[in-house]
Amino acid sequence: MPDRPSIALLPDRLVSQIAAGEVIERPASVLRELLDNALDAGASEIVVRLDGGGIRRIVVQDDGDGIPVEELAMARTRHATSKIRNLEQLEHLVTMGFRGEALAAIGSVARLSLTSRTRTADQAWQLCPDAGAPEPAAGTPGTRVEVRQLFADVPARRKFLRSEQTEYAHCLETLVRAALAWPDIGFQLVHNDKPQRQWRATSMLGRIAQVLGQEFIDQGLVVDARHGPLTLSGIVVHPAHARTRADRQYLFVNGRHVRDRTVAHALRQAYADVLHGERQPAYVLYLGLEAGLVDVNVHPAKQEVRFRDPGAVHHAVAHSVAQALSGTAGPAAQAATLDPAQGVTPAPWPAAASGAQQRFDLSERLRPSASSSPHPATSTTDAWQALYRPLEDAGPAEDDLPLGVALAQLHGIYILAQNREGLILVDMHAAHERITYERLKQVWATQEAASQRLLVPLVLDFSERDVALVSEHAPTLEGLGLSLGISGPQSVVVRAVPALLADADVDALVRAVVADLARAGQTSRLEELGNALLATMACHGSVRAHRRLGLDEMNALLRQMESTERGDLCNHGRPTWRLWKLADLDRLFLRGQ
Ligand code: ADP
Ligand code: MG
Known about the structure:
Layout: H1 12-23, H2 27-40, E1 45-51, E2 57-62, H3 72-75, H4 87-91, H5 102-109, E3 111-117, E4 124-127, E5 135-137, E6 142-148, H6 155-158, H7 164-181, E7 186-191, E8 194-199, H8 204-212, H9 214-218, E9 220-227, E10 230-237, E11 249-253, E12 256-257, H10 261-271, E13 283-288, E14 294-295, E15 306-307, H11 310-328, H12 331-338, H13 362-365, H14 382-388, E16 405-410, E17 414-418, E18 422-427, H15 428-446, E19 451-461, H16 464-479, E20 483-488, E21 491-498, H17 506-520, H18 526-541, H19 551-562, E22 577-581, H20 582-588
Parallel strand pairs: 1-7, 11-13
Antiparallel strand pairs: 1-2, 2-6, 3-4, 3-6, 4-5, 7-8, 9-10, 10-13, 11-12, 14-15, 16-17, 17-18, 18-22, 19-21, 20-21
Helix pairs in contact: 1-5, 2-7, 10-11, 15-18, 16-17, 17-18
Magnesium ion is lined by residues 33, 36-37, 97, 102.
């Protein structure tokens, strides 16, 4: 047997290189560590210079506290930190850093120089990569860290670096996160000697606008909530502007950008009713909680945290975001209508800004103009009669109706209405779909589905796999008023449909529902499946484009929208209506100019 090597301590540098393997993956990870250090030092201005996507050189210069000359060498030593002294302080962390490892790790896989001057020192000192002691240098108070030739001596790592553009893009994203996290710090970014970004110190909303564009604010709803020891603030984007990619989702916990499943799930839940399919929400959210309630020492690169009470966090996020989305939001919702040049910005309910709990109680305020229907029974279906009924004995105050009074139908697709403020256009199908969806949802929640039996049960062919799905989910569907049974190895019988969908094309409806079941097969989360089913059914049960409506029917639809929660969005997150104020129209015709 060959000689077994004896146990020996690893050399310091190798330990750092191993640690670097966890923390330093690419130039952007170096940048993140250096930015964290600048923040911890109390910087108010941070300048970042990159060359070659950060592979050749990364410089981060701050105007913070600086490092005393006698500590410079110590700073790049492993496990050396000025930020914590004991476990107690680790558990109540107020700084970004605490491991005392970043500079050592970076120094072990790149050439690191430190130049620093404290606020009281009369000059700066520089510690070069291979030097043991600092030398006098020129420099203003603050610290300048320069990192060259990342992974030059670590071929295994270098191999994984991508193109300069890609590495630059990662660095930029890192800077974006830092900038969003700390709006009161000014940032500059230079790449290959070209200035790329400059963000002055500002407010939280100001910074979001600087970094993500004013439209992010215009399309956003403000979240500003407190739940016990938790605070949640920021912007969630109106579902109408949801993105196809999940690239604008920023979560900061106590100023630290993290990824977190609890919060991600809470957000998905909050958006579930207004966002279906592949659309992705966009948000910048700041979660604040006492340091003792969150453990940041769970991930070497600090990209994850652990909450002491994840349930409370989930509740706070889901609740506050859902509230913002349901139109009760404050300033940003209004800000969304501030720019009249954008006549097409989805406006919040004109009168609803003060709170959605106060919904429009139409039964008390409306009167139908029953005499004015030019197209009487011809197009009036059961569903429409159902919409009419509550209107029969109401009294009108037309001017006060948020969605106004119907004037006409446009190309069988849109309803034109007028309210006190101007012209309203409603997408009939989208609006009806939303209403049906919310009603189905209520039905489902109370499990008191009214269903309409088919005179002749309908038998449909399906694959064995689909038949199995139907048999598995039949009880769920029954709860929605859709009664399906198995009539053969490859056939399903439809016995009843939800009363709300009495007019739907039953064949198409059932096939769409079964497709949902198949898709949900992988997730099998009842809650998500439920939402998908409701959306599908609402879509099939809703009035299609090109259906002629009488004025009464249109007014009924408008009233119904007013009393429907989140009536301003269809289930796919598209707006259901838009408002053009008179002033907008005047501008369009250059009136008074
Ligand atoms: P940590 O941030 O976890 O303490 P680092 O290796 O990142 O560990 O930094 C080591 C120490 O060097 C810090 O604790 C701090 O005292 C000092 N330091 C690093 N960067 C800066 C900076 N930009 N300004 C002032 N001090 C710094
Ligand atoms: Mg650090």
